[in-house]
Each structure stands twice: as structure tokens, then as C-alpha cells.
């Protein structure tokens, strides 16, 4: 029960306050090597249309959740970037958070009053770090910028010329520069050239097709395996032969079969034994995990975490809206394969014998088979209003959907620990 409670918090804590649901999720902040540097915690209070409802209500709810469940669980032990109001700093509300793990984010339009600047100095002395978000170079925000450990610039709101001016101003600062809302590989490349240290956005999930790119032979074998996994019933003998064609995949598959992800009590030492013991449904899932892991070897770990979460969530929630769990798992996992393989989705699905409905779901068409994928993509981006609209239109139960996502997050973490 304790594990479920922690997972529920990480996936999207839901608190009841004044008759309204409040959500918490996280968005990764990656470094130049593609590793997660930390997570920004995102909030929605059920009323305001913005992703980060920076208000006293949202801040107090966040504080309550972190005290009850622990910031380490919310942010996987990495720095947690927490949106704050000036009042939450001056009134010392944030001091319930662990200083060494917390980055306190203030909007750049916060008025740098003597009380606020004194509170920031005190919090930094206590071990907290400060971030100034949506920085535009406004002279009034400079006293806060001089105290900041992180300065965040929205690449969608500040053009390249203005960013150049901002970066010149902060050139002598010790603050790390964070590019916000980096949604394309082109934006990421430009931000790297400009001197940003950290990047927030889902650019790493976007496919970047390479010219004349050919999929390596071992990955073509993996696509053959995906084709066989989609057949009903599965030809176990042919499947085991295909798996054994690739040593890396065989190793990863055996690791997963012997891991908590599979929850088997008997150790296995061969693909044939694994096939016999786990059965078709479980083998489909763990084979997909192994293939996804191999596909993403040159990609940030976050993309693999998201693929695991998507696949498992779609599988678990399928029963809530009358969909096939095995196909939903496939749709959720495959949705990030184009970014991993650096090919377009339309090129990938031509290689796979998917049903027309599954193809349409993967291309973002508004059909029942794409509902769960649509929901989890909106959840990742903090589009809470759309998440609620999907749940209502599909007749699903909100709490059950959130529980499915909580379980998917926990399961994905177990899968990544196995692959470490």
C-alpha cells in the first residue's frame, strides 16, 4: 500500500480541496548529455487554464503533498523545481521542504521588495536554490536575477536576437541557464549554440529523420519480432529464434523476465524457458520492453521512461473504455519509437502489420483506440483541462484513470532499475 501511495503521488497527486481536484505532475529538465538534471513540479487547481497555477492555493497544496509523501519520491531524488509566490517565501511557508533538494521558482515579474530579497537571501543561506522563470531582462527583475542559481528563458516568447542580449547580460553570472519550452530539435540545437546549460520541453520526443537513414539489421529483426508479437496466437518457436538472433536483446529480455517487472518466482536461463513460463501476454509485454530499451540506447533515459509509462498506462486503462489491453500497450510503446529510431511515424507503421485503427491512433486521429494515448500525452504536457475532457467524453472514472497512471509510473521505474 505504501508503494501505491508513493506512485500515486508521482504520477499525479490528486487532493480534494474546496470541492475541487488538484493535480501534480512533473516535467523533466535535461542537461547537455540528455540526463535528467531535475524535475519541475506542475500544478493545476481545477479552475485556471494555465499549466502552472502559481497561486497561494497551488503552493500550499504542493507543500501539503510534499510533506505527506516526500519530495524525493516526487522528483526521483533529483532537484525539484517548485513554483512559488512571493508570499510563500516571505511567510516562510517553503521551509517545510528539504533545502538541499528544492529549487524555488519565482516569476520574473515578482516585485523585488526588500522583504522578498531578504527572504531569498535567508533561504539561500539555509541551502535552498532559487530560479527566476520567464526571464526577459527587465531591469526591475535584475536584483532577483543576481540571486538566482537558475535563470529560465522561454524560447517561444523571447526571439533569438533578444536571447542574445539576455545571455550577454548574464555572462558573468554563476546561474545555470535553462531554455524553457524547447519543443523541437531545431530549437534545442539553437539553444545549445547560444550557451544554455539545461533544457525543458519535449524536443527529445520528436522524430528527427536522418537523410538516407537505414535501420540497422538487428533493429530490423526487432521489427520482425514486433510483427510476430501482434499475431494471435504467437508462433513461440519462430519468436524464440528471432529473439536469439540478437545477443543484446536476449540479455535484456532475460534480465526483464528475472526482474520485479515480471514478478516471477522461478529464475529462467533461456528464451525457451521464459516463453514457456510467462505465457503469451506477459512475453509480449517484456519483449516490447526489451526492444524499446535497445531502440533508445543513444537517447535520453527520459524517453525510455516515457515509453514504458505510456505502454503500461494504455494497457492498464484499456478495460476502462472497452479497448484491447495488448493492442493498447503496443500503441503506447510504439508512439515514441519514431523519435528513438529517427524515422517518421508513417514510415514506421508501414513496416508493422497493425490494424488500421492502431495506425490511425498512432498518427493522432480522433478515434476510440487513440483516447488513452491522447490522455497520457496531455498529462505529460500538463494539459489538465484536456485530460478532464477526455475522461468525461469517454465515460471513464477519473480516480481509476489516475490510479492506472500511478501504477504505470511505478512499473516503469522498476523496468528502468532492471535495465540499469
Account of the 3D structure:
The protein has 420 residues and is an alpha/beta fold. The protein has two domains: 2-205, TIM Barrel (Alpha-Beta Barrel), CATH 3.20.20; 217-419, Orthogonal Bundle (Hypothetical protein af1432). It is 52% helix and 13% strand. The chain has an eight-stranded mixed barrel with strand order 2-3-4-5-6-7-8-9. The radius of gyration is 23 Å and the shape is elongated. 43% of the residues are buried. Residues 1-22 and 49-53 have low confidence and may be disordered.
Draw up the topology in text.
Elements: H1 2-12, E1 13-17, E2 20-31, E3 36-44, H2 56-69, H3 71-75, E4 80-83, H4 86-90, E5 102-107, H5 114-126, E6 129-133, H6 142-145, E7 150-154, H7 160-169, E8 176-180, H8 185-194, E9 198-200, H9 217-229, H10 236-243, H11 247-257, H12 271-295, H13 301-317, H14 325-334, H15 337-341, H16 345-350, H17 356-362, H18 371-380, H19 384-394, H20 398-419
Parallel strand pairs: 3-4, 4-5, 5-6, 6-7, 7-8, 8-9
Antiparallel strand pairs: 1-2, 2-3, 2-9
- CA radius of gyration is 23 Å
Strand portion, in percent? 5-15%
- Enumerate the spans where pLDDT stays under 50 for 5 or more consecutive residues: 1-22, 49-53
Q: Helicity level, as a percent range?
A: 40-55%
E-strand count: 9
Order of helices and strands: HEEEHHEHEHEHEHEHEHHHHHHHHHHHH
Decide which structural class fits the backbone. Answer: alpha/beta
Looking at the structure, what is the overall shape? elongated
Largest sheet: 8 strands, mixed, barrel
So, the CATH homologous superfamily of the largest domain? EAL domain
What's the number of domains? 2
Spatial separation of the terminal alpha carbons: 26 Å
Read across the widest sheet, the strand sequence of neighbours is 2-3-4-5-6-7-8-9
The number of distinct helices, counting runs of at least 4 residues, comes to: 20
Mean pLDDT: 81
State the CATH architecture of the largest domain: Alpha-Beta Barrel
In CATH, the topology of the largest domain is named TIM Barrel
